Amino acid sequence: MLLRHTPIEITERTALTINPAKTCQPIGAMYAALGIHGCLPHSHGSQGCCAYHRSALTRHYKEPVSASTSSFTEGASVFGGQANMLQAINNIFTVYNPEVIAIHTTCLSETIGDDLPQIKKKAATEGKIPEGRYVISASTPSYAGSHVTGFSNMVKAMAGMAEPTGKKNGKVNIIPGWVEPADMEEIKRITNMVGVKTILFPDTSGVLNGPLSGEYKMFPEGGTTVAELKSTGDSKGTLALGEWCSADAARELDKKNKVPCSILDMPFGLMATDRFIEALRTIAGVSIPEEIAHERGQLVDMISDMHQYLYGKKVALVGDPDQLIAMTEFLVAMDMKPIHIVTGTPGKKFEKRIKELTKDMGCEVNVKAAGDMFLLHQWIKNEPVDLIIGNTYCKYIARDEDIPYVRWGFPILDRQGHQYFPTVGYKGGLRLLEKITGVLLDRKDRDDSESKFELVL
Amino acid sequence: MATATKKKLVQWGPAEVKSALLEKYPPKVARKRAKQIMINEAQQNETPELTANVRTIPGIITMRGCTYAGCKGVIMGPTRDIVNLVHGPIGCSFYAWLTRRNQTDAGPDGENYMNYCFSTDMQEQDIIFGGEKKLAAAIQEAYDLFHPKSIAVFATCPVGLIGDDIHTVAKNMKEKFGDCNVYAFSCEGYKGVSQSAGHHIANNQVFRHLVGQNDEVKPGKYKINLLGEYNIGGDGFEIDRIFQKCGITCISTFSGNSTYDQFASSHTADLNAVMCHRSINYVADMMETKYGIPWIKVNFIGAKATAKSLRKIAEYFGEKALIDTVEKVIAEEMPEVEAALAEITPRTEGKTAMMFVGGSRAHHYKELFDELKMKTISAGYEFGHQDDYEGRQVLPNIQLDADSRNIEELEVEPDETRFKPRKSDKEMKALEKAGYRFKHYDGLAADMDKGTLIIDDLNQYEAEKLVELMKPDIFCAGIKEKYSIQKLGVPMKQLHSYDSGGPYAGFQGAINFYREIDRLVNSKVWGFMKAPWQKNPQLSGSFAWE
């Protein structure tokens, strides 16, 4: 057994986290910043933070992830990181010449109280920021929230780049949240089909799912451009997908630039996608083309085709709040039973929302925000499930308990495909269903006796 | 394309490459980097020529990690029956969770916490009001849940800044439990200039709190410790297999596939064999002073190096039975190695490699490329010191800077009861007279060809430039470097985590490595990068469809 010391008896823990279902803010800020075209994320802290975040993102995407660091030493930690930051800004613009440096803090620089806006001002006065280049920053202390919070904080800093001209651009801002590059591409495909002009930010498609061509571009073609980010203040509205990932940025645009916003769930599964399409229709005043209804119909068709294998199946879920909310709704809609749900990200609202979504399921649901995977495993030991959905760390539980498992979320360190094939929208719903039914039926084929083994399923 | 590449290789001499690497830098950065790039003279210097183990330049995209990574990730990570509890915000423990591919074998029922990740997950109020209480509570909860024999606590950056006294908390909990050794590592990420400081901090605490805890004499003849072997991809399993075949008893490995008791009994061994000089030479030195165990440098990467290291161990013990067994084992193992080489070298001979990894690995792996008849045209370390490049004879002339002085040096004296010279002065002198060298390491430079480039703390910009100018057939570094190099069409082998391969140590490992390099440098995929229409963009006429 891989997790052989996990007892079935659940004891309350107040101080010890075991097998976390979250990581720290800065990695989220780094991922978000990679969704700006020509941007170099910069980690203001000791160099290990940057090394760890780059490694984790690289392992997940199998793509280059460039980011720099202030490389704090003991001296910088005592006297403040300003000198390191100023030197870094100068070196970065001289050697790498990005359009934007997106700085995020760490627990180190937050604890010593470095003031990034002030350092930025000093860099500007000292002429260290070339004409037409930008330095943006987000405060992302690792000791608050989670990687999701860090993502949200950097997206909010991106919204801060809006420069309204007073003339509307006729576009809709879409903040997709922490989804895969493939999902961002899919959202753009959908909005194109609907015929809505959009500014999607951040946009890591074309950045973290690039081709192999013999050329290395430190700043690939993809990403939301600075011009687009500036223009977000002239958009007619903002659709924020996911309360945890995207709402703060949307509200910032509303508050500062009077760009109204709607906060939606991430469009995973049937109903969340329905609401997304409806929102696009309303905000842009367009009628929805037949192709979209066709894709929707295909998803409904597959649900009905596979319903017998999904019905009543118990599921354990671990991941980030926005994803889990949409996934729970999708599973419930297919008459599955998500009974154990954990996120490491804090927020009582999450537990409330999950309770609401599962209230008619007719069984007890374990849900915890600021929980961990050790607890999830103990719940599973106490009430086994038919399926686990979560990141790669779930494979240890899945193997020990011999439970079918679908990789979904962050990080996925041992499989490929998430950067290329979306799970948002109706098409993405089809892919999720393909994966879910695939593992359930593989299990049935494995476990059926020879006399029960069937050709046609 | 191919001819253009060859031309470049001829045109660019090492001095030109060096200046090309530096030309884009601001003057101050260029001056500093110039001292960390050496055109190898392959001579045994007394004073170091190359600057190493100095601060990373802010903003320059480095390969390096932090002190915590060196301490918790590298040295303590591979030990299975210690609960490694990270005191800090969640990230540091999360990133070090199962990401280093240290394999372990606890058997069906043995204690094994390596698949777990433990953290105090410090929150804002802990940063403001101090985290000692939470740490004590977390240690208690871990003890209540698992009853481990040992709990190790690791400090992350904010812990040092807010002044949590983790050592006192650990001491108090140890006294409270009575049957669980609790100790702490002040390995905040900002200490030192790289992972290397973390190795030193880990060595100190392992020596202070673990080594010498168990005096029970283990069975076996020819008892050694293998220091600086981390069982990445199962390297340690292969070395253990060979030791067993030779009749050599490995009391402890620091720290691949290790247990608490191995550390605790390590002072009962008669020889310390050091693999990774950089990460563990401190413990070797301290054990010699305190317990009288001599140490030698070995290398089990490369079939010839493995044979050489086995002979070196046998020569130390000096008994015919062992010497004969070692020769027999080498004679048994080598035919398969030679057969693999005979098959593969025609496809690898003359190809070129670059390696920028670790603090000893770049040197060790050169052996394997030599065996494949490939030329290492440039190499360097991520966190090596000057003695790792130019040999231990430069040690007296290394200037300690403020960053190195901040790392504690333990004052060690011979143990009153346990100090026991393993060999008499006369025996040691006789061995040395016969050419045997204790505490000796020549470093990377001595093995690199004249005119090759040795580069310390290579960064992303320089890596890309080097590959562009010198077009190696393979580049070796870590995960962060992997895909930017491969985008250029050059295969990249991870030598920290081995991608998902290994073992590469010992005889079987060497064969695995030959096959892996053959796969990489001869893969068809590098020929698919351009589409047919990109190779021949000019259409001479349109095709007349019938």
- Rg from Cα of chain A: 23 Å
Q: Please tally the β strands of chain A and state the result.
A: 14
Proportion of helical residues of chain A: 40-55%
Count helical runs of chain A.
Answer: 17
CA distance, first residue to last residue of chain B: 36 Å
Structural class of chain B: alpha/beta
Number of helices of chain B: 23
Describe what you observe in this structure.
The complex is a heterodimer of chains A (457) and B (546). With 457 residues, chain A is of the alpha/beta class. Chain A has 3 domains: 25-159, Nitrogenase molybdenum iron protein domain (Rossmann fold, 3-Layer(aba) Sandwich); 172-291, Rossmann fold (3-Layer(aba) Sandwich), CATH 3.40.50.1980; 305-447, Rossmann fold (3-Layer(aba) Sandwich), CATH 3.40.50.1980. Chain A has 17 helices and 14 strands. In chain A, the strands form 3 sheets. In chain A, strands 12-11-10-13-14 form a 5-stranded parallel beta sheet, sandwiched between helices. A 4-stranded parallel beta sheet of chain A has the order 3-2-4-5, sandwiched between helices. In chain A, helix 13 (321-333) links the parallel strand 10 (314-319) and strand 11 (337-343). By secondary structure, chain B is an alpha/beta fold. Chain B is built from 23 helices and 14 strands. Chain B has helices spanning 2-11, 14-22, 27-35, 67-76, 90-95, 124-129, 132-146, 157-162, 166-177, 195-209, 235-246, 260-265, 277-291, 303-317, 320-348, 361-371, 386-390, 402-405, 425-433, 460-470, 479-487, 506-521, 532-535; strands spanning 37-39, 83-87, 118-119, 150-155, 181-185, 223-229, 249-255, 271-274, 295-297, 352-356, 375-380, 453-455, 474-477, 492-494. In chain B, the strands form 3 sheets. Chain B has a 6-stranded mixed beta sheet with strand order 1-12-11-10-13-14, with helices on both faces. Chain B has a 4-stranded parallel beta sheet with strand order 3-2-4-5, sandwiched between helices. In chain B, strands 7-6-8-9 form a 4-stranded parallel beta sheet, sandwiched between helices. In chain B, helix 15 runs parallel beside helix 22 (506-521). The longest helix of chain B is centred in the middle third of the chain and has 29 residues, at 320-348. The radius of gyration of chain B is 25 Å and the shape is globular. Strand 1 (17-18) of chain A pairs antiparallel with strand 3 (118-119) of chain B, so a sheet runs across the interface.
